[in-house]
């Protein structure tokens, strides 16, 4: 007689749930905190003023009056929701305009707008690949890429973060397996803020007859002379087969896009379940993303990008001067390093990361905490990120808070990881 179990058991015994409860006891849960104001450089959170070093609003456009006006105008014209799928009644002229603008920016034949970036990865990877194909991913790739792989039922082969020798091994194995091969990497890795060595990855993909897809979520608007992301910065736009991006970072909105050849985009348009079986992006989201894209593509976009990079370099140097282990962006094979908006501080230990988060929060600074599986085991990070709209005085205040927190924390718990460890 088979014994059945309660499917809810895991909810009571899961390690993460137990950790959440322990942290809740001492009010040290770094997640689900309540924001009471816009995602500006300084915010109101849970009744207090906090410096926001945990937003992906890299260019500060969520507060730009033209982007806000575009959202209002879209609501005035189309109402609050589309109440339907893109396939049926949910395609507005705004969606099509945004697709045209994004395809032009990426320099691709076509582009398809999804309701979120997560769905864009799910939809592209889950539809293009099937059983019998292989997808090769970097171990640092975003969860939505891995979810797309699950949906596709293709064979997944992962290689250690940015290790080209291991990528080549995976390609050799995939070649033995037969079937199609897709390599998918983040252009900028979301937690550590480093950039994939795309020219070398493109060389390898070409050598083994694989297609290459790059997730530009954290690169769009902040890298490259046209702000078109890591592929542009590294001059491989022509060699990347599919580009994915989200509107939830520099584009100050919510939604996602896949850009590529017209035939592949048409295939997704008609076959991609996360595109077809959900309501399309609401007017305010699409209208504001379109306004943000236009700013990013203008001269002003270049100035915002430069300002963001200055801020990232300033925060990086300030935290480093305190003896904190600021994770260095991995140098590209040509030796250069790229400033992205993400400035991660290595803590290593999960519990210490939560305690540090709490101390910073109490000192009026909000940062994100990244724990395994978002980072490798033992690689807990305080993930700080800057916006173009932070000013130097605010960053100085945040660095001073880090200094005070570090001093008190080390007096009680011993030294934090340092760059020489
Ligand atoms: N890819 C990457 C690299 C991301 O960081 C994210 C979001 N954090 C996504 C995809 C998903 O995008 P969205 O938030 O629009 O669902």
TrEMBL record:
<dbReference type="InterPro" id="IPR015422">
    <property type="entry name" value="PyrdxlP-dep_Trfase_small"/>
</dbReference>
<keyword id="KW-0808">Transferase</keyword>
<dbReference type="InterPro" id="IPR001917">
    <property type="entry name" value="Aminotrans_II_pyridoxalP_BS"/>
</dbReference>
<dbReference type="InterPro" id="IPR015421">
    <property type="entry name" value="PyrdxlP-dep_Trfase_major"/>
</dbReference>
<dbReference type="InterPro" id="IPR050087">
    <property type="entry name" value="AON_synthase_class-II"/>
</dbReference>
<dbReference type="GO" id="GO:0030170">
    <property type="term" value="F:pyridoxal phosphate binding"/>
</dbReference>
<comment type="similarity">
    <text>Belongs to the class-II pyridoxal-phosphate-dependent aminotransferase family.</text>
</comment>
<dbReference type="InterPro" id="IPR004839">
    <property type="entry name" value="Aminotransferase_I/II_large"/>
</dbReference>
<dbReference type="Pfam" id="PF00155">
    <property type="entry name" value="Aminotran_1_2"/>
</dbReference>
<keyword id="KW-0663">Pyridoxal phosphate</keyword>
<protein>
    <recommendedName>
        <fullName>8-amino-7-oxononanoate synthase</fullName>
        <ecNumber>2.3.1.47</ecNumber>
    </recommendedName>
</protein>
<dbReference type="InterPro" id="IPR015424">
    <property type="entry name" value="PyrdxlP-dep_Trfase"/>
</dbReference>
<feature type="domain" description="Aminotransferase class I/classII large">
    <location>
        <begin position="51"/>
        <end position="401"/>
    </location>
</feature>
<keyword id="KW-0012">Acyltransferase</keyword>
<dbReference type="GO" id="GO:0008710">
    <property type="term" value="F:8-amino-7-oxononanoate synthase activity"/>
</dbReference>
């Amino acid at each position: 007689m088979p014994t059945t179990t309660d499917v809810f058991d895991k909810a009571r015994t899961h390690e993460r749930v137990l950790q959440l409860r322990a942290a809740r006891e001492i009010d040290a849960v770094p997640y689900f905190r309540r924001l009471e104001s816009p995602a500006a450089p300084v915010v109101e959170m849970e009744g207090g003023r906090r410096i926001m070093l945990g937003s992906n609003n890299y260019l500060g456009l969520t507060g730009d009056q033209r982007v806000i006006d575009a959202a209002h105008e879209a609501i005035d014209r189309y109402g609050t929701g589309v109440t339907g799928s893109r396939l049926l009644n949910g395609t507005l002229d705004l969606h099509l305009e945004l697709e045209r603008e994004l395809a032009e920016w990426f320099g691709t034949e076509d582009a398809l707008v999804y309701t979120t970036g997560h769905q864009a990865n799910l939809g592209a990877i889950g539809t293009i690949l099937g059983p019998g194909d292989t997808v090769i991913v970097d171990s640092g790739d975003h969860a939505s890429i891995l979810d797309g792989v699950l949906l596709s039922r293709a064979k997944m082969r992962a290689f250690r973060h940015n290790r080209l020798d291991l990528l080549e091994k995976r390609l050799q194995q995939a070649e033995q397996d037969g079937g199609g091969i897709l390599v998918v990497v983040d252009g900028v890795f979301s937690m550590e803020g480093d950039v994939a060595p795309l020219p070398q990855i493109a060389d390898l993909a070409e050598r083994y007859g694989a297609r290459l897809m790059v997730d530009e979520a954290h690169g769009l608007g902040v890298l490259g002379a046209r702000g078109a992301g890591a592929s542009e910065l590294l001059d491989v736009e022509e060699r990347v087969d599919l580009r994915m991006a989200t509107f939830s970072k520099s584009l100050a909105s919510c939604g996602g896009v896949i850009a590529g050849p017209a035939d592949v985009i048409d295939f997704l348009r008609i076959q991609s379940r996360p595109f077809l079986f959900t309501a399309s992006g609401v007017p305010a989201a699409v209208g504001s993303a379109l306004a943000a894209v236009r700013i990013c593509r203008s001269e002003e976009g270049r100035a915002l990008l430069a300002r963001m990079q200055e801020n990232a370099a300033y925060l990086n140097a300030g935290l480093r001067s305190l003896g904190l282990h600021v994770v260095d962006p991995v140098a590209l094979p040509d030796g250069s390093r790229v400033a992205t908006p993400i400035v991660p501080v290595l803590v290593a230990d999960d519990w210490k990361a939560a305690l540090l988060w709490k101390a910073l929060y109490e000192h009026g600074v909000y940062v994100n905490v990244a724990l395994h599986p978002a980072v490798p085991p033992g690689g807990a990070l305080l993930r700080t990120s800057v916006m173009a709209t932070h000013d130097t005085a605010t960053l100085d205040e945040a660095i001073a808070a880090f200094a005070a927190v570090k001093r008190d924390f080390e007096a009680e718990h011993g030294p934090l990881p340092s760059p020489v460890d």
